[in-house]
Amino acid sequence: MASSKDQPKGQHFLLTLECRTLTFMELATIREATACKWFMRMRWPETDGEPYCSGCGTLRCYSMSRGRFKCSAKECNAVFSVTSGTVFAFRKLSFKKMVMAIWLSVNSVKGKAALQLSREIGVQYKTAWVMLMKLREAIAARRDTMMLEGEIEIDGKYAGGHIRPKNRAEDRIDRRNAKYQNHKRLCALALRQRGLGRPGQTFTRM
To answer: CA of 94: how far to CAs of 32, 34, 60, 97, 121, in Å?
Structure first.
């Protein structure tokens, strides 16, 4: 394990200029076509945003209505969109509102509430709640392939399972005994990768 002396010194990543390359004022002025191109570059980074068929892999795809694409191979003829096969499939939000929801979610210090997000981007509460759950699903799927390295901090906390003691001392029970426990106690574990010169990663487990 690397010692603290080997860690790069300097300003924390969240305080650096690289963390402020896109402000909310700039994000509010983008067009829907620009937001769609961002999603296309993230979906197909190998071709710099040019769509290709995920079934046969051909680049010969032509555009259709409602932002869809169709494979020109006769043996395939698959119809797909930018969000097909991703957590954003069957979406109802525009690309611009999805980008704004992602920006607001990742820049919130203590998480983002669905009720607050619904007011900020002008959608119903259920729509904002589904969007935030999709973002959490994408993060959870990505964490399975990530690994921590260097100096790791681990901390945990027990939550729930507490039986309130009686007011009278003669009515109280020994809560340490298994028969007096409700078995609803959980342990929340957090693992944090240290390092000031690079963004640290944090994993949480129950």
So the answer is: 7, 12, 26, 5, 11
The model's pLDDT over 115-167, given as tens digits with 9 standing for 90+, comes to: 999 999 999 999 999 999 999 888 877 777 777 878 888 998 888 776 777 78
Task: Give the predicted TM-score (pTM) of the model.
Answer: 0.67
Cα atoms found within 13 Å of the Cα of residue 14, Cβ hemisphere only: 7
How far separated are the first and last CA of the chain, in Å rounded? 25
- pLDDT tens digit sequence for 73-87: 888 888 888 888 888
